[in-house]
Amino acid sequence: MIDTDDSIHLCKLLKLENISCANSYDLRLDSKVSHLRSGQIELGIIWVLDKVCLPILIGVIGRIIGDKIINRLKSKNDELEKINTQIEIKIVDDNLSIISIKHNGDAEKLMKILEGLKND
């Protein structure tokens, strides 16, 4: 199992928002950490068990993307490349059905999808 530094950061931010979550460290799994040096964000798979958490989750993901963009702007003087995101969100609804959203593309489109999800 390999965690990315982005997924570890996401877990820490969710815990700060009092959302119950765990990563491989919390589960006492011996996993490696991958540090990405590109404009890509890998957040792994996120299970949402309570729809009330969706707005907080969307806000936290937006903060991670915003931080990544700010860091890229600080480290580069030339044009900012598009931030690529990879994420899969699984939402368990009241009937215990699983709704799955998988995204591998630019961060701007991801945020539009998540905002639409929050509005639904």
Structure description:
With 120 residues, the protein is α/β, with parallel strands linked by helices. The chain has one domain. The chain is 39% helix and 28% strand. It contains 3 helices and 5 strands. The strands form 2 sheets. The chain has a 3-stranded mixed β-sheet with strand order 3-4-5. The longest helix has 22 residues, at 54-75. It is globular and about 45 Å long. The termini are far apart.
SSE blueprint and pairings:
Layout: E1 2-4, H1 5-16, E2 32-34, E3 40-48, H2 54-75, E4 84-92, E5 98-106, H3 107-119
Parallel strand pairs: 1-2, 3-4
Antiparallel strand pairs: 4-5
Helix pairs in contact: 1-2, 2-3
Give a brief description.
Helix content is 39%, strand content 28%.
Main-sheet strand order equals 3-4-5
- Report, as a whole number of angstroms, the end-to-end distance: 34 Å
- Calculate Rg over CA atoms: 15 Å
Approximate strand percentage: 25-35%
Give the overall form: globular
Order of helices and strands: EHEEHEEH
Percent in helix: 25-40%
Report the structural category: alpha/beta
Mean model confidence by pLDDT: 77
The total of beta strands comes to 5
State the low-pLDDT regions, or none: none
